[in-house]
């Protein structure tokens, strides 16, 4: 299928699909005239990429672990290996720290607005 068809099926822009290709996340075949030719399996691959991005993973991390992604009846999941587990734990710690900082900022803002 052409990039416009994959974009329509997945709800992802052609620009994003080209970015995924530039990052090595998608590797479409090429037709004799040079057009990208995506397989049906690329629909699932794009869903996996989008799920991983929405979970906070960057494209370089996704590239390393995309082969660990599995899609079934309940969505996308990852088969965890020790390296991936360590990266996900690190991301979770960074999110926790950021969340704590946001709570502190919110308390300071509340104190400012209640003075007077």
Automatic annotation (TrEMBL):
Domain (HTH merR-type): residue spans on this chain: 1-68
Span of the signal peptide: none
Family annotation (PROSITE patterns): HTH_MERR_1, HTH_MERR_2
Domain of life from the UniProt record: Bacteria
Pfam families the UniProt entry points to: MerR_1
Keyword set, alphabetical order: DNA-binding
Protein's name according to its UniProt entry: HTH merR-type domain-containing protein
Species annotation: Actinomadura vinacea
Phylogenetic classification of the source organism: Bacteria, Bacillati, Actinomycetota, Actinomycetes, Streptosporangiales
């Amino acid at each position: 299928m052409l990039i416009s068809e994959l974009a329509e099926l997945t709800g992802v822009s052609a620009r994003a699909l080209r970015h995924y290709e530039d990052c090595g996340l998608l590797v479409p075949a090429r037709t004799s005239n040079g057009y990208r030719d995506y397989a049906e399996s690329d629909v699932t691959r794009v869903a996996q990429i989008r799920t991983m991005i929405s979970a906070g993973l960057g494209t370089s991390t996704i590239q390393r672990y995309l082969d660990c992604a599995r899609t079934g009846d309940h969505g996308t999941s990852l088969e965890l290996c020790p390296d991936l587990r360590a990266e996900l734990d690190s991301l979770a710690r960074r999110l926790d720290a950021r969340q704590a900082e946001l709570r502190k900022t919110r308390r300071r803002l509340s104190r400012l607005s209640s003075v007077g």
